[in-house]
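Me: I'm a chemist; would you kindly supply a protein sequence with its structure tokens?

Assistant:
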Amino acid sequence: MVRYVYDFAEGGRDQADLLGGKGANLAEMTRLGLPVPPGFTVTTDACRAFLATGSEPDGLMREISDRLTVLEEEAGRRLGQPDDPLLLSVRSGARFSMPGMMETILDIGLNDESVLGLAKVSGNERFAWDSYRRLVQMFGSTVMGVDSGLFEGVLADLKQARGAASDVDLTAADLAGLVESYRSLVRQETGEHFPQAPAEQLRQAVLAVFESWNGERARIYRRREHIPDDLGTAVNVQTMVFGNLGADSGSGVAFTRDPATGRPGMYGDYLANAQGEDVVAGIRNTVPLTALAELDPVSYEQLLSHMRTLESHYRDLCDIEFTIERGRLWMLQTRVGKRTAEAAFAIAAELAEEGLITPDDGLVRVNGEGLARLMFPRFDTSAVGEALAHGLPASPGAAVGAAVFDSAEAVRRSAAGEKVVLVRQETTPDDLPGMIAAQAVLTSRGGKTSHAAVVARGMGTVCVCGAEEITVDTAARRFTVGDTVVEEGTVVSVDGSEGAVYLGAVPLVDSAVMRYFETGERSDGLVGAVADAMERADGLRRLEVRANADTPEDAARARRFGAQGIGLCRTEHMFLGERRKLVEAMILARDERERERALAALLPLQRQDFTGILEAMDALPVAIRLIDPPLHEFLPDHTGLAVRIAAAEARGERPDPHDTELLDAVNRMHEENPMLGLRGVRLGLVVPGLVAMQVRAIAEAVVERIRAGGRPRAEIMVPLVGAVEELRIERAEVERVLAEVSEESGIPVHCPVGTMIELPRAALTAGRIAEEAEFFSFGTNDLTQTTWGFSRDDVEAAFFSAYLDKGIFATSPFETLDRDGVGRLVRIAVDEGRAARPDLKIGVCGEHGGDPDSVHFFHAAGLDYVSCSPFRVPVARLEAGRAALSSTRTSDSR
């Protein structure tokens, strides 16, 4: 029989799949002897069984009842006991942290009788009614489906009527009346009464947490963080401890290191006379955790000791929630804390230096996505005046956008292509869609552990919290700072690294990390941490990292960023600008002589390009792809030409003969689906002289570089091959021209000839194609298009958002490689290609080559290199090292 309930003392942190992250860590803290309120965990198995059937699993409530009996015996009190009630919290706890995305219900067990007992035994009538109103509010919204805004409205009306600035200013009588108002609201909205039976409260609360796994905000967050939908959540049932008993009580959140910068020390927020939800919600501004040293020195020292214990045990930054109940410290939760990219690199380096982890452990704890964020530009504030306002630097980075004041507006404007900054008093889980859409989040309340700060840090979104100078008026859709009024739509700049807000768009400068990759300059501790991680990754990785570069400037930049060659040089990019006229001349040629004249004019220009690129990448491989796109892309737009000709005729003028000639060519070359038409190798086979001109330009550039003392390593790549016969014919043409140039120059020119694998047929016949190809390069953009049967240019805007919403895609297949479909074709081609030619060099040159997850796949599939845009080269280098380390550890564990 499946077991669904485990006491905290029975589990450990290695059981997160079963107990969820929160439950596993509560068990771990219990085993460490830390002061954890007693409780038990309902497993993720129970949640999955509930979600599959829509009803509670057989035996679940019996197990919960049995465990509750043990808990009651240990406490010497019963759940909801009228004279001295045992109260419980019911909290979600998934395998992966999902802060605020699922439900919590506190104070389970309170009813009309036990609230009086709680008031008497605590000696604090106000506290008892405050706890009861919290239960009705949480239970009403979470379990019974009442709009939480309705409860907030009733509370706001009461505070206004009493002239109360905050909740703590309300009296016991006020709160007792509020409970009755809340219960009336529940009856009005649901037609049902708030349940008085404590056991029924517990049952419904547990099932409501299960259901919240599929709530809208939880689903959105999982899509954003790529968390699987089938994991389910555990539920943690825990004895309540109270931070809202008076000045000697309170709740807080602590980090063993700064989650924004990684600096060692004690960081966090504390709020006296408050429950934990008040701290995270940001409804009142907290005090820094260091203030606890004066408020309660004993608890402060105990907390410091427990933090040291946890960081040493977990060997990582720990995020801790705690409550002080009348001077007694309780540890409510710990987890490995979310952090910014800057903090991740800094913490990994410092923990390795301290000997808590190995350098390899440090490399596991950073990633390419974080490195990319550190390469983003920063604000150049030297040219602007004083900041409009300051707050807490909750999540670093620089972002510019139009101020908006609700989630829906942020989503609407972002979908229309506008960059926005979401401005709120404080955020709630319901604001998640707007936070995802926004470039930055700005709040007037809350600290570094508020909902806005925690979620923004996890997503890598710029965030400034607790900007108290700002008065946010969501109804009027504006905020004010003194006499300055900022209306919705006004552009603001948010500096999440400094905690500053500016009016207008502040100019940007390169980050220190970008300068390091450009110059090698180590300017601060963060750069040193990044440099150490890069050196470690480079020492471990098997995959080479090349760049996609089409100009000598791009090639030089890629080399500075650590590229080991060029995996894709697109010759068609060299035909743009003024050279387009020469391509037009080639297309419009009326005979072979005119075509040869146009190609002869292009030859020296192409040779010059290749010479510069080979010089920038001297001694490193440069894979030059022969012209790929349809030739009509080099002709003017059909509509523009037709309008010009029609306008001339309407004026009674004779149209420009060149326009007429161009229009005839456009009509002649028009294709319904040009991406599957006359392009790639097909062009080389039907347009005489085109391949020969390009190959001659490459060969002559090689000769020029050799004569200059260089070591050129040009490779010739034939695009869009679907049949070995195509490659065989084109390769013969390539080798003929190479031989001609070798004979003319007296310098042997050898350029390996390979092909792009970008059609499913090429992947499925890779064994035959390898007989003619000396290397393969997967063009994963086209391979994704042709495998899925859709055009990237057309479908991303048309239906990708719907596919992401419906869970058909976890992420766009153009961003992260589709392992099941496209990935399987890659593996087939690798296996069959190497079977036919064991020394076959294989790489990838689509932008997947710079995607962190895809790099791990390419390592596992046995590729030799990845190639990506120059700015993604450092990301690919880092991930290639992490992939090698991951595969080594996996094999060692077997």
Q: What stands out?
A: The chain has a mean pLDDT of 90.
